[in-house]
Amino acid sequence: MSSIPAIPHSAPRASNSALWRGVIDRYARYLPVSDATPIVTLHEGNTPLIRADNFVEACGGQFELWLKYEGVNPTCSFKDRGMTVAVSKARERGASIVICASTGNTSASAAAYAARAKMKCVVVLPHGKIALGKLAQALMYGATTIAVEGNFDDALRIVRELGNTGQVEVVNSVNPVRIEGQKTAAFEICDQLGRAPDFHFLPVGNAGNITAYWKGYKEYYSVQKADRLPRMFGFQAAGAAPIVDGRLIEKPETVASAIRIGNPASWQAATAALKESKGHIDKVTDEEILAAHKLIAQTEGIFAEPASAAPLAGILRCTKARMIPAGSVVTAIMTGHGLKDPETAIKTAGFEPTIVAPKKETVMKVIGL
Ligand code: AN7
Q1: How far apart are CA 34 and CA 12, in angstroms?
Q2: What is the pLDDT of residues 113-172, one digit of tens each?
Q3: Which of 137, 209, 302, 303 to mutate for ligand 1's pocket (most ligand atoms within 8 Å of CB)?
Q4: Which tens digits make up the pLDDT trace of 202-239?
Q5: What is the pLDDT of residue 1?
Q6: Counts for the chain of helices (H) and strands (E), in that order
Q7: Ligand 1 mean position to 362 CA, how many Å?
Q8: From CA 175, how far away is CA 182, in angstroms rounded?
């Protein structure tokens, strides 16, 4: 076995076992890495699993809900789990340029990990449809940032064509090692809960994540690290629901810009996950998404981006339809941080700061004292 090639800022080898070294270090035996893989990590993963009783009460449900807060990853979304593997493998192969199409989070993550690996990163985005925080990240991490006058599906088509030239490494989830990294979130949930959930709720865009979670749960079950397999419950936005509607959506539209996708790359794998797990896929309206976005912030103090609220809107629906039996253990993935999209958040909150003269009395008046 060769030793890990020296790479600046690669996984630290401190002796302190309390130091979390990222998902490759933690779950290497389940991942396509060897001692020869130069690990590029920002210590992603190990995200909190937070019980959300207030939200369940607001729903009128009688189950245990656990939120996996993926928004606290290094670039504030779940994409970092797949990107650590994708960029490490790209580096192992000697690639010098990584490229992705993105609705925002993949590009933020690719740009960060490429910077860490001293690689060039190119991101291809739908012009004008990227949440502000995500755009700031791509620019700040120094990615070559290209905005196409089209949607995500156009951007991904172009990126796939560029990938075929062999000159760039595509780090979208069409790259199977992305899915491998993302499945570690299912492992973490089982490790944290001490069991697998009965129901697993998540948003569905390009459908890589539902594919990854299902793969992760199945693998953990097969090595007896999980006692059961959850039913996968996916939610698309009503204006961007190709899997639910059973047809390609040429002009997808939704306030949840992360999942504004009309032709998901992992469509078939998602359909298989839904079928095998006796799962369920549905669409929720932008109004339902924004209501859930606000409700989770105000009942639990958890600020997640609009796409992450789609499964919460789904939980509200499924509770009303009595689809979640009392006593069930339910997980939902808060895929991205709320600060990614401050413009939508400020609009959704529905009120502005109260401007007052700089005096104690004026402030007291606003408080109602
Ligand atoms: C917060 O960044 O597709 O079904 O290009 O950012 O695996 O696509 C993002 C997707 C859910 C959907 N929640 O996951 C991209 C991109 C958030 C996301 C999804 C995305 P997939």
Answers
A1: 17
A2: 999 999 999 999 999 999 999 999 999 999 999 999 999 999 999 999 999 999 999 999
A3: 209
A4: 999 999 999 999 999 999 999 999 999 999 999 999 99
A5: 39
A6: 15, 10
A7: 44
A8: 12
Residues 25, 41 contacting (CB under 8 angstroms) = yes
Q: H/E element holding 117? A: none
Question: Position 14: which residue type?
Answer: A
Distance 35 CA to ligand 1 centre (A): 30
Mean pLDDT in residue range 42-50: 98
What are the pocket residues of ligand 1 if the criterion is a CB atom closer than 6 Å to any ligand atom? 77, 102-106, 173, 203-209, 258-259, 305, 307-308, 335-336
Percent of the chain with pLDDT over 70: 96
Cα 116 to Cα 337: distance, rounded to the nearest angstrom: 21
Distance 14 CA to ligand 1 centre (A): 33
Smallest CA separation from ligand 1 atom 14, residue: 205
β-pair partners for 169: 98
- Find the 331 Cα to ligand 1 centroid distance in Å: 18
Half-sphere exposure for 185 (CA within 13 Å, toward CB):
35
Look at residue 361 and tell me whether its pLDDT is greater than 90: yes
Residue 142 near residue 111, CB atoms below 8 Å: yes
Q: How many residues does the chain have?
A: 369
Under a CB-based contact definition with an 8 Å cutoff, are residues 134 and 344 in contact? no
Query: Coil, strand or helix: which one is 307?
Result: helix
> 219: CA distance to ligand 1 center in Å?
23
